[in-house]
Amino acid sequence: MIDRRQMLGRGGLALAGLTAGCAPALWPPAPAGVPDDLVADLQRRTFRFFWDTTDPATGLAPDRWPTPSFASIAAIGFALTAYPVGVVHGWITREQARARTLVTLRFLAAAPQGDGETGFSGYRGFFYHFLGVTKGLRFARCELSTVDTALLLGGVLFAQSWYDGDHPDEVAIRDLAEQLYRAVEWPWITPRAPLLAMGWHPESGFIPHDWAIYNEGMLLYILALGSPTQPLSEGTWQAWSSRFDASWSDRWGEPHLHFAPLFGHQYSHVWIDFRGIRDEYMKGRGIDYFENSRRAVHAQRAYAIANPGNWRGYDAEMWGLTACDGPGDFPQRIGGVDRQFFSYSARGPGERDDGTIAPTAAAASIAFAPDLAEPAIRAMHRRYGQGIYGEYGFLDSFNPTLTAAGAPLKHGRIVPGVGWVDKDYLGIDQGPIVAMIENARSGLIWQTMRRNPHIRRGLRRAGFAGGWLS
Fold first, then answer.
1. Rounded to whole angstroms, what are the CA distances from 143 to 68, 70, 418?
2. Cβ distance 308 to 350 under 8 Å?
3. Which of 69, 398, 413, 459 has the smallest C-beta neighbourhood within 10 Å, fewest atoms?
4. Alpha-carbon span 425 to 192, nearest angstrom
5. What is the DSSP pairing of strand 199-201 with strand 144-145?
6. pLDDT tens sequence across 137-196
7. Which residues pair with 399 in a beta bridge?
8. Please, which residues have CB within 8 angstroms of residue 323's CB and are 6 or more apart in sequence?
9. Cα(453)–Cα(152) distance, integer angstroms
């Protein structure tokens, strides 16, 4: 098998656009100035990240690039979701997308499952968080991840519903998607039933933490409830959502379920259109989960305007805190103020905020609040330009406050006129950008997933009603 770290060098990117029997996708060079439609340019570049860096022989998508890394099962789910977006925009053909998707699903379906510490890709239908890029087996001692399996399955079920033709390969895609979804033994990973555990290690057993608060776990529970083979029991969603009151907050604006990093308000919405459908909890609050995410976006902007930490760059246009790379874990005195910086971490208003801005936080919020997200995208590009915007769109994160060289940086570098800038793109941050721009513009993913019987079953078993579910 080709080593992706060698294949995706500066001279190897064209090879990554090839699939068997398909012509390579041709990409125009990066424009020197501001594109006429920056949002469209960002979406195209972000799509290219998945098309170029995913292994065409296996469908394994890297956790990050260009730093050599393991594959991420969540990134694979986002890649599967990105391919049809590329088709509808004419960036690749349906044949190319179909071939890459079929390769991916065949690889996943054949990946070994077992309870051993090595030599397996997953167990009981779940997959390990990270897989090696050569054989697709468990990387190091990472966990069998429930939520990352859910993000993978989001892409798998989207493929199942989007490839709806009579072509034999599209029939195979639908069958393989069904096989992968049906294989997951959801009740097994509820050691503290009815809540789902965050994961499992073959060395030590279940992780001692559950999906017990409002967060990106909505998709996870809906998939677990919708299983036609091994679903969670009735009432599971209600047991989970009964805990949500502790997260209700109006500190930075309108009352909403608070979760500090924005990814928790975005991931489930990539695949599920929550507009107009409500469970019992949201009926009691008088809103739906889409409106909740819109309020969370406005709260982040309000926090940036208030800027209680006096971080450089925060204002009405420049905002966006979520899980992302950071400069490193070290203190530094800047302008007479002692600052603490972090490496990869989940950031949010008042929670591990170290001045690091993640473009995905704003860009992937475009479906909720285009009036805030589009100006933020343009402001980032206008202020920092090529320092943070490159071949695959925005680099993962940047920090305008940290401008001095000599800090013990773990990632990235100091860029004059910007500050600290990450050197990598991360699959789980790129995925929501390309998907949510598409949902904002055409509703492609939402409309496709409305047809998926498993998603509909899961929503109904969770108690959702109204809107398009009626």
1. 20, 14, 36
2. yes
3. 413
4. 36
5. antiparallel
6. 999 999 999 999 999 999 999 999 999 999 999 999 999 999 999 999 999 999 999 999
7. 420
8. 261, 263, 344, 345, 346, 347, 358, 429
9. 17
